[in-house]
Write a structure and sequence with these properties.
The chain has 203 residues and is an alpha+beta fold. The chain has five helices and seven strands. It is elongated, with a radius of gyration of 20 Å.
């Protein structure tokens, strides 16, 4: 991903937390010579001393046809984004877009059925934590759980992380105006404003 120097985030702990908070990503590979993408949860985990992403897709998904040992994939994680009007600037300039996005490259390793079930237990337990009546896969019947036979589980050993945090870093003199106007526009824009405020405090 092309990332101008001003917008590159090399704080890996911050980027890891971003992936954890925005774990519904896009996994991209090649299927029959064409790009193929699937929208799925990709959980950041440790496997031994390695950092990995863990996920699963339906066996009916053609993307699985190209899965083999050491397949390289790209996983994309989106954060908030917002249009930034140059009418908020003190000096004339073109409008732009602020956003956060992370690209993760890695090699894919298939999971056994047992490992896939363990991964599904961790996934459900994680997201059920805040439920009023948390569900456990242990509560489901063997018949229902047989659906795991219809998915392909995998882990991706992370080789490279690219993080773009475009937050009007080159227009510090306009931050107050940008933040004020973004907060008047909506939830997503307010989230971008919060990130601009945070990175302003760290300058």
């Amino acid at each position: 991903m092309y990332i101008p120097h001003h917008y590159k985030n090399e704080n890996l702990e911050e980027v890891r937390e971003f992936i954890r908070q925005n774990s519904f990503g896009i996994m991209v590979n090649q299927v029959d010579g064409k790009p193929w993408a699937t929208h799925i949860p990709l959980e950041l985990e440790k496997h031994g001393n390695r950092e990995v992403l863990v996920g699963h897709i339906a066996k009916a998904n053609p993307q699985g046809k190209s899965f083999h040992a050491d397949s390289q994939v790209l996983c994309i994680f989106h954060g908030p984004h917002a249009y930034v009007s140059s009418s908020w600037y003190k000096e004339e300039e073109v409008p732009t877009w602020d956003y956060i996005a992370v690209h993760v490259y890695g090699k894919l390793e298939l999971l056994s059925e047992e490992e896939t079930m363990q991964a599904l237990h961790r996934l459900v337990d994680h997201y059920e934590t805040s439920s009023e009546k948390p569900l456990s896969l242990n509560d489901l019947s063997p018949k229902t759980l047989r659906q795991v036979k219809g998915v392909i589980g995998f882990r991706i050993e992370i080789e490279e992380i690219q993080a773009a945090y475009k937050l009007s870093q080159t227009r510090q003199q306009d931050h107050a105006s940008i933040i004020k106007n973004l907060k008047q526009r909506g939830v997503t824009e307010t989230e971008i404003a919060r990130h601009i405020e945070k990175q302003s405090d760290n300058l």
